[in-house]
């Protein structure tokens, strides 16, 4: 006689995850569950939900590295449990960070001797690096003003309106006035002359961007340096420059070695760069390098000894992983100048392929420049019927993540799409993207117009129905603010439609 019994839910040995009770209940969202679950079930359920994320390789919005060699992946996993701050326990990891700092400093032409140690630190990204550089500028300015018996309550920093949000964070968090040079149509980076005109005795530094987030363009750091040298001579000030090379710092030395933007310019006192962008490392590593020791005030550096030996530290956080530092060192010695140059040249050539493909459609204006970060920023020549936001939305049906956004003041009436060309974006993918964009444009042409701008001399009115958003305005009222309202109206219209239907609007 065969004996049998009913298995309990707790008998995990005979259950697959999909035969268990764990797939019949919702995952906790606000409170930790009372009971445990098998490791296999936890993995499977979380992994399944993560399938709904976009494909990182097709995320063309991001500058951040999404592919590394398997050998480097192994190094990352083998060191993922090392806390970098334990320098005495992990002295080799500390040494690797110092090697990276020295290599990057020499790459940026820091005035160092053959055996002289560079001044710099690894960070969790360029945001932290910029905070540290800004604090150094602020403290240097304060110390100088105090020595002269002058007030120190109104520091300011001059940037372009195209800076990344971390600069706004620095200004707000550390109480520094942010003076922005406004943009204009066709000129989407900081104007060096306008920037120097805004400098006063309270300016702690001028920040230049080597690779604008908006269109990849390099700002003219050389011209800024020359103009600021003259102003410093006239006024007796010594206003310095910081270069935010988050995106361009690992591009310019290999593609444009003759371009003067780094420590070859006397007023450049510090530079930040993102290792996790074109430094070709996964997210979580940035670097800030100072020209020399005098540019980093000693009173900002802390010394601790409760982890072993005396350890100097200048960071905003304390604990952090070692794996990204090790990965950066791997890339620097694995690729060398030759490898980095080859990667950047490939990115530039694939950028040109994409740009030429878009130009052949005769539907777009190219906003980005050939010299700069390898990306293509483009806008519709005719947006009277459909918008860049629609293109961005419909490209997701093909798996592509391509952002659409408006420019900062005073060019906020310009809307663009942007494709970032990373190491793992091949020519085949570039050609496929052009093909999919052409399909999207054909589909949009077949749809009723959702935005119609009627320019008349009559009264202003707005009308909307299930298929169209009709905007009629006075000709005299076509200004920047009105165009912003039109864009906002369209975005709200699309959002409302999405809430009512599961299809593509």
UniProtKB/TrEMBL annotation:
It is an enzyme of class 4 (lyase). It comes from the Eukaryota. Belongs to the group II decarboxylase family. Its cofactor is pyridoxal 5'-phosphate. Pfam families: Pyridoxal_deC (PF00282). Its EC number is 4.1.1.15. Gene3D superfamilies: 3.90.1150.160, 4.10.280.50, Type I PLP-dependent aspartate aminotransferase-like (Major domain). This is Glutamate decarboxylase. It catalyses: L-glutamate + H(+) = 4-aminobutanoate + CO2. Transmembrane segments: none annotated. Keywords: Calmodulin-binding, Decarboxylase, Lyase, Pyridoxal phosphate. SUPFAM superfamilies: PLP-dependent transferases. It comes from Camelina sativa.
């Amino acid at each position: 006689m065969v004996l049998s019994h009913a298995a309990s839910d707790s008998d995990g040995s005979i259950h697959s995850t999909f035969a268990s009770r764990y797939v019949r209940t919702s995952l906790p969202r606000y409170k930790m569950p009372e009971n445990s679950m098998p490791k296999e079930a936890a993995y499977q359920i979380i992994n399944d939900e993560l399938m709904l994320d976009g494909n990182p390789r097709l995320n063309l919005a991001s500058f951040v590295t999404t592919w590394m060699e398997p050998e480097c992946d192994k190094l990352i996993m083998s060191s993922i449990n090392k806390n970098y701050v334990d320098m005495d326990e992990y002295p080799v990891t500390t040494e690797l960070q110092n090697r990276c700092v020295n290599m990057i400093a020499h790459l940026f032409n820091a005035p160092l001797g053959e055996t002289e140690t560079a001044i710099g630190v690894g960070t969790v990204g360029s945001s932290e690096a910029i905070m540290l550089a800004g604090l150094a500028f602020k403290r240097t300015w304060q110390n100088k003003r105090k020595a002269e018996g002058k007030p120190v309550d109104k520091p300011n920093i001059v940037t372009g309106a195209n800076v990344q949000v971390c600069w706004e964070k620095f200004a707000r968090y550390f109480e520094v006035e942010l003076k922005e040079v406004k943009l204009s149509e066709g000129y989407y980076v900081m104007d060096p002359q306008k920037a120097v005109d805004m400098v006063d005795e309270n300016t702690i530094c001028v920040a230049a961007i080597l690779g604008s987030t908006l269109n990849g363009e390099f700002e003219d750091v050389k011209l800024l340096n020359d103009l600021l040298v003259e102003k410093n001579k006239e006024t007796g000030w010594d206003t310095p420059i910081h270069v935010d090379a988050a995106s361009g710092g690992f591009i310019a030395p290999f593609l444009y070695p003759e371009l003067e933007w780094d420590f070859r310019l006397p007023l450049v006192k510090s530079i930040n760069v993102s290792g996790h962008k074109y430094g070709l490392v996964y997210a979580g590593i940035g670097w800030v390098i100072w020209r020399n020791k005098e540019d980093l005030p000693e009173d900002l550096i802390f010394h601790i000894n409760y982890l072993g030996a005396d350890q100097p530290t200048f960071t905003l956080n304390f604990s952090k992983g070692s794996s990204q530092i090790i990965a950066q060192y791997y890339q620097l010695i694995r690729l060398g100048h030759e490898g980095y140059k080859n990667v950047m040249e490939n990115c530039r050539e694939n950028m040109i392929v994409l740009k030429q493909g878009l130009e052949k459609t005769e539907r777009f204006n190219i906003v980005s420049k050939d010299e700069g970060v390898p990306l293509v920023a483009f806008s519709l020549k005719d947006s009277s019927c459909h918008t860049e936001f629609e293109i961005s939305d419909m490209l997701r049906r093909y798996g592509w993540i391509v952002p659409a956004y408006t420019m900062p003041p005073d060019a906020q009436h310009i809307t663009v799409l942007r494709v970032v060309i990373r190491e793992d974006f091949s020519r085949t993918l570039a050609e496929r993207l052009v093909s999919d964009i052409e399909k999207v444009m054909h589909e949009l042409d077949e749809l009723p117009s959702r935005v119609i701008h009627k320019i008349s001399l009559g009264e202003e009115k707005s009308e909307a129905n299930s298929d169209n958003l009709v905007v009629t305005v006075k000709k005299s009222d076509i200004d920047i603010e009105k165009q912003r309202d039109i864009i906002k109206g369209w975005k709200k219209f699309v959002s409302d439609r999405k809430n009512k239907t599961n299809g593509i609007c």
